[in-house]
Amino acid sequence: MPTISLDEIPTLTLLYKLKKILPGDDKPTYEASGVLNDKISVIRQDITTLAVDAIVNAANTSLLGGGGVDGAIHRAAGPDLLEECETLDGCETGSAKITEGYELPSKKVIHAVGPIYWKEGSRSAELLSGCYRTSLELAVQHGCKSIAFSALSTGVYGYPSVEASIVALETVRNFLDKESQAEKLDRVIFCNFLQKDEDAYFDNIPDFFPPVVTENVAQEESSTEPSELASQLPDAPTAEPQDAQDTQPSTKKQKTTEADDDFVIVEKDDVKEGQGKPEL
Ligand code: AR6
Q1: 89: which residues sit within 8 A by CB, 6+ positions away?
Q2: Mind telling me which SUPFAM superfamilies this protein's record contains (predicted)?
Q3: What 8-state DSSP symbol labels residue 8?
Q4: Rounded distance between C-alpha atoms, residue 187 and residue 206, angstroms
Q5: Mean pLDDT for the stretch of residues 227-241
Q6: For a tag on the chain, would you pick the N or C end, based on fewer CB atoms within 10 A?
Q7: Per the domain annotation, does 235 fall within a domain?
Q8: How many domains does the structure of the chain reveal?
């Protein structure tokens, strides 16, 4: 499968220029920053095709693989990834651990364990935020300048897309604003798989990463022709990424907490409508 390099992944600055993302109607909560808008990207792609420094996997506490994006990443990385994961002794919900990328085009994989939404209830946001924060910290510690997140917990773990995108955007914005080490990151990419997740990001981004005035084509005399800008975008996927069937929840046993003996069987019926299956 062809890989997508960092310079093919559009930044927010470009997405605003092309009006792929429109400014919100309300006054944004956060201040506009051109520097940050050059650092943030949203893309709808199979994350295993991204040639970036680190991709973030939506793992479970065992870190021993599963379905969805976890399955796709393990398949693309090859068996050495599972071998390294076996040495990690699992991971707590709300945290993350890092491995090599092996046969993936990305150098590293950060395995984050998001909350099971219906199980964690009111703690879900804090735990999901912990996944994003820990992943960013790990990326910086390991010299990764570009990091691509899958939409953690929004598949089998049932986190509603809009709520999850708000937690992700807020955590990343606060990290980039407040952590001096964040300067080492050149690009943070939100990599979605389903249209509903991309829509959630496009709707919420203007509140957390608003356009600076000159990014709004309506208010500026653009020096670059729109057709020239559009040619900088990678081709939009014409079909859902391969392995789409893997977003169907597996009916095999899944370890869902740190406790060794605590397994749940996730049946298809447990998954809210539209959460488990790509919209083809
Ligand atoms: N590239 C990018 N995103 C993807 C891909 C892909 N190839 N495949 C799926 N997604 P899920 P969770 C999206 O269910 O909800 C696993 O079995 C998908 O559309 O993979 O955190 C683990 O082992 C959704 O938006 O992860 C755990 O047991 C997002 O990835 C459990 O599922 C996350 O969906 C974790 O559940």
Answers
A1: none
A2: Macro domain-like
A3: G
A4: 18
A5: 55
A6: C
A7: yes
A8: 1
Q: 3-class SS at 6?
A: helix
Coil, helix or strand for 249? Answer: coil
pLDDT in tens, 181-233: 999 999 999 999 999 999 999 999 999 999 997 554 444 444 555 555 566 66
Phi, psi for residue 232 in degrees, rounded to 5: -80, -10
Ligand 1 in contact with 150 (CB < 6 A)? yes
Looking at the domain assignment, is residue 277 inside a domain?
no
Q: What's the CATH code of the domain at 13? A: 3.40.220.10
Domain assignment of residue 59, given as a range: 4-270
Q: Whose CA is nearest to atom 34 of ligand 1?
A: 155
Which residue has its alpha carbon closest to ligand 1 atom 10?
69
Q: Ligand 1 mean position to 151 CA, how many Å? A: 7
**Does residue 115 form part of some domain?**
yes
- For ligand 1, whether the C-beta of 94 sits within 6 Å is no
Does residue 182 line the site of ligand 1, with CB under 6 A? no
Give the predicted TM-score (pTM) of the model. 0.84
154 CA: nearest ligand 1 atom: 15
Q: Is residue 280 part of a domain?
A: no
Q: H or E segment at 137?
A: helix 124-141
